[in-house]
Design brief:
Helices cover about 65% and strands about 0% of the residues. It is mainly alpha-helical. The radius of gyration is 14 Å and the shape is globular.
Amino acid sequence: MTGRGLGASAAAALTTRGFAELFRFGKAFGAQPETLTGLSGLGDLILSCASRQSRNFSLGIALGEGASPAQASAGMLAEGQFTAAALVDMADQKAVDMPIATAVAAILDGRISVDEAIENLLTRPLKAEA
């Protein structure tokens, strides 16, 4: 969102939905709620969604600004670039709905553009996030 200049409201919506995904995924794999709401869950999500100290955030900004995945990751190791597809595969095994993770994996694989992913995510029907 930051790389596309969409503002704080869009970023907050995406972060909130991202936490809902994290929680569903963790719950499906037996994680303790305290872990998901603590520093290694929500804390890491906030860092990854809001700080240039996060390599994943920096990668996302570069992608949003129009860089290809290869260009965006040049000279840095953003672990999300290599784990997104595996996360989606694991979620699929447990039938966990993870539209953000799916969109990220599709962007990184070159199957959709950042703009297509944003449109798909922001036009999803409203429903409970849990």
